[in-house]
Predict the structure of HTH tetR-type domain-containing protein.
Amino acid sequence: MLEQKGYHETSMDEIAARVGIAKGTIYIHFPSKDALVIALLERNMQKFLAGIDAVIEQHSTSRARLEALLRYIMTDLLQKQMHLFSSISHSLDLKYQEPEGEARLGGLWQRITERVVALIEEGQATGEFKRALSTQAMLYAFFSLFATRHLKKHIVNDEHTSQRLVDQLIEIYFTGIAVESRS
Amino acid sequence: MLEQKGYHETSMDEIAARVGIAKGTIYIHFPSKDALVIALLERNMQKFLAGIDAVIEQHSTSRARLEALLRYIMTDLLQKQMHLFSSISHSLDLKYQEPEGEARLGGLWQRITERVVALIEEGQATGEFKRALSTQAMLYAFFSLFATRHLKKHIVNDEHTSQRLVDQLIEIYFTGIAVESRS
Amino acid sequence: MLEQKGYHETSMDEIAARVGIAKGTIYIHFPSKDALVIALLERNMQKFLAGIDAVIEQHSTSRARLEALLRYIMTDLLQKQMHLFSSISHSLDLKYQEPEGEARLGGLWQRITERVVALIEEGQATGEFKRALSTQAMLYAFFSLFATRHLKKHIVNDEHTSQRLVDQLIEIYFTGIAVESRS
Amino acid sequence: MLEQKGYHETSMDEIAARVGIAKGTIYIHFPSKDALVIALLERNMQKFLAGIDAVIEQHSTSRARLEALLRYIMTDLLQKQMHLFSSISHSLDLKYQEPEGEARLGGLWQRITERVVALIEEGQATGEFKRALSTQAMLYAFFSLFATRHLKKHIVNDEHTSQRLVDQLIEIYFTGIAVESRS
DNA sequence: CATGAATGAGAGTTCATTCAT
DNA sequence: CATGAATGAACTCTCATTCAT
């Protein structure tokens, strides 16, 4: 609900109705709407972080790991019902009134990017990725691919087409960053 | 104002004050807040479209044109005070209550993407861009680069660093899509 | 309404309904309920202060002035529909969330007590009031007489009885503080 | 808690926490918050009544008794942490939703005033107090002295100053009502 | 046409009260 | 009896929209 409709479009009444409890009950568990959203995001980010680690350790090379990670996130996004990464990504814009919670969120996001940074630098060290490119650029290009904004217009119900899109994005990205271009 | 603070964070009072007219006067020209925002976006999109065309015709090859376009949009985004593309991009998420206006916006967005699609297909026709990649993928990868969400965290006041980021993103993208990589 | 039912017992809906305007309209003129109450009190205190001065200047001796002042306040209180002093007195307990407004209120209350203090010290100087009594005690005894809490139970509709009560309170007070006892 | 912070500022949660039982348990013993407050006041009033009687029987003359009573109440008030009389006095303003309980409270308050009325009339009978003054006036003047509202602004931590204030108030009051002034 | 005070539906939040455990 | 999570009515406050001037 919150993940799909957004912060302002989702009222506490709606949330309560959707969860099947009374509005006041929410305030037993969360002191404010912001706190609720932050807690939700925190949970999602933690799940996402765990997912990242699980995905990474299933592969050995930096390239394979980064590619698997890209597929993992894309799969999540293409499931149409926005999920982990989507909710996180959507929330990075907002300014919450709870500095402490925001700090926790920022810390988690940092840990997420650290994983990717590690993969990139590892790949550069092993000679898999270009050393001429800054980590910053490769990181930015990586996460840019998951801009749900534009994805929405490209989502197709056809499983095959979606898969093909992901494959080609992977090709574009890795041709761009990898040392040996495939063409 | 609307472009920077967002739809919900900008009240009609603020808009009126900023424009220098009375709040009631706005409703003479626009039937609702949504209509106002849509009209604003429409104007921005039209300007942006004109900007695209101006940029494109300054170059001859598809590659040069697409690269110039990328730089044009990036410059807009990096100016920090969100401008044309930024306001458009930000608004694509929202669901307005005015179907007719939304349709006009959709039409304009389509005309924008058509420009890029034309460049891509032209480049494929001339052999500049890979024919194996679908237009969809190259289009998606192109607009993904402008995810302001993630850009925010990478914006730096240092002009030189920003420029370097753009250069490297261009390298990644075009190495990925172009037939002959330049490195 | 607010004066009679008290802060917590009077909702903004009630106030709006009583004044004959919409709830939202109140917030055009006052930023919060506290601000509204403080403004109301401020106005009452200013009126009261003006009333005090008007009463005082109608008499010449300290004794006559203080007595007239006592009658003035009592008359206000006995009118049953709580008025100036009553609303002020009732509000001295509350803790508002607007420090600035509270400071203004405190300043006004100080100016009110200053008038009485001046009368008392003047009377001591002229030999009308006992010099052995501290100003503080005479001041406190004076304002204590207007404790609406207890007054409520003694208010009678009979004009004559009310007047007699006031007369006797005056006698008790002034016999207590004046140099020459009457008895 | 209730005595100090007031009815509206004290929630059932706070009361439960303070008493050390669960919130729901309160409702086994008291049907409502009003009933709880009324019961608390009733207990306080009964204690106060017992205190009055204890104080009175320690002295013989009406004058001594009334003076001792005045000191007794004042001491309670000056202890800053509001106690018996204070809680009672504070509650007389409120309008409870339990007519029966309010009646019991009213009855107890009447019994309290009856003690004072008895002292006053006894003193008039023995010639200690002026017969010209109505019992009502002397009663009202007596309880007026305990207006906590104004007392707050005069409370000082200095034990000596507080005592001096009480002494002078006693002098003012008794000079006002007694037949022979003592100076 | 322009104005801005007035509107009122709806938002987030609180808290006395209830009831399954 | 005791519990405390759940309830929902009522509160304060916001803001897009209207309309008499």
Notes: Chain D has a mean pLDDT of 84. The CA atoms of residues 137 and 177 of chain D lie 10 Å apart. Chain D touches chain C at residues 6-8, 89, 92-93, 95, 130, 133-134, 136-138, 140-141, 143-147, 149-154, 164-165, 168-169, 171-177, 179, 181 (CB under 8 Å). DSSP finds ten helices and no strands in chain D.
